Amino acid sequence: MPRVPAVPHVIYGADYNPEQWPPEVWREDVALMREAGVNLVSLGIFSWALLERAPGEFDFAWLDEVMELLHAGGIGVNLATATASPPPWLSTLYPDSRPVTVDGVRLEVGGRQLYCPSHPGFRAHVATLVRAMADRYGTHPAVQLWHVGNEYGCHIDQCYCDTCAVKFRAWLRARYTTLDALNAAWGTAFWSQHYGEWAQIQPPRRAPTYANPTQQLDWRRFSSDNILELYQLEAGILRDVTPDIPVTTNFLGFLPGLDYFEWATHEDVASVDAYPDPAAAHPHLEAGMIFDLTRSLRGGQRWILMEQATSAVNWRAINAPKAPGLTRLLNHQALAHGASGIMYFQWRASKAGAEKYHSALVQHPGPQRTRVWREVVAFGEELRTLTPLLDARVRARVGIVFDWHSRWALELDSKPAQLSLMPLVQAWYAALRQLGQNVDFVHPGGDLGAYDLLVMPNSYLLTDADATNVRAYVQGGGHLVTGFFSGIVDGHEHIGLGGYPASLRDVLGLWVEEWVPLHPDELTHVRFTGAATPVPATTWAEVIHPTGAEVLATFQDGYWQGGPAITRHVSGQGQATYIATQLPEQSLMDVLRGALTDAGMPHTTLPPHLDVTLSETQGGLILHLLNAHRADPVQVTVPGTLHTLDGQPLAQPLTLEPYGVRLVRVPAGFSVADITVVAGRH
Known about the structure:
By secondary structure, this protein is an alpha/beta fold.
């Protein structure tokens, strides 16, 4: 597992925007960074307007000075290409470079990411700026990493202008070659949509009613690829000029618009921005999902938490601060889930602009006067003791199937019900974590054989190749648990005929006759075999016909009463469990617990606020115990002789105060089933 960038310590730092401050503050900043233990800053992200004040007129003097100050202070630089926010002169020079919404509105100057990703003039100026940055700073000893753009797709993940329409047609030609193939894929015989010329095809702009679903799906694919092409333009220049400096761009977790599985193959190291809501019931679960996804995108390689808030953000309706201790807990969670760098937005809180109320390391009152500063300094000191984590690997025997293309297709209009993928994924993820499992996210076309248990909360779209891959996993000995409305359409968004889900009927041992979407206030009930009372279920029910599957639970309501609700089927050397509704938390855990048992995997039952991760180092196993409860302590016992990370013996039981963290070296052969919670089950 290579370290990228190859530094001998855990990265600690923040976005640094010195252009907002006079030079005398820069010197104070460097001194304060050293006090806080900062060793890397992201520099220049929003600096284009000051680096190139007019077309071709570059001013690098101020950035030269900042680079030298940082380097003299022993602080490395994650140098941005500065292309994330074009200067106003570019929009004046090219008015048509401003993006267009689905309703045909061209957006105006005043925010960030004001660009059409297809515009040739914009791309030309991007290339010129990036090459100038690489030529000037590519040999600077402070530069450890290139930061391309920033949060691609955060505001503009689709542009519907005429330039993008031309590129969309070119993308479709490359995908389908002929109009006959496109017409077949799009099902244009419906609603008289047959295309006779490529020029007739438009983006799925606002239409009188539902747009063609395959057109919409291909548009989402194109839009992700088109923005990726913009990233590749920059990364290609950097790799040409500075081949030895690694390249990244910061992701946004489960951002809807970009296929990060594809994007991550073009990075040297994955990085992510994570802003879980501290007012939510379980912010650590939202953060954990993002962290596990980021680790999974590059096959387990360690990654960088590029942005987070030290306390409150500025963009929610109500911006709750992080209570004392929560930032440290989430930082430890990131490290436990595979991070090699902990960074923030931003170093010094702005006094003007749209993000002036966003928290920072140096808050408005000044560093010595805030508890936030005391926390970040203390954590910087603590990080110096955590270097062994750089070589740790988080191994997961459970994979959650996730695919952006399936999400796009599921959330298109004109469905049996308006379903959103992420609440389903979050519920299944939370159940697996409470059962003590390390979890990866995996593409259905990826290497599934690494997992003893594969869970698929919903994969509405499965390409023929991906469906074959999933079936081969089960028949080769894998254990699959899948949720309702999965395997319904192929890669063209065409329904498989002969009973749903056509692509998975054989491994599931059943076929579905019809679906029963439930209203938000409507319940159905499910009775498990041998249970005295049924449990309530929501969202969905189905009329199912088993063709070999064992029935584990039945519906108790409506005309679907008595029919299967949960089934299990042996297929080849493996087995597949099907859940035809949305179960309550404990019932879902029961089904997943049974699947873990069948797969021969150790498991436990943890309080929802106790986050447990097991990682491997050359020195043995490390157990990360985090109590995400803000009020109640937790006590656990673990068999065997335990030691701290630096080898000191530990007495038991282990007590974790609210937001408490313990890193424990555990004996070889340890499993999560060995953990006993002796107090703190709330």
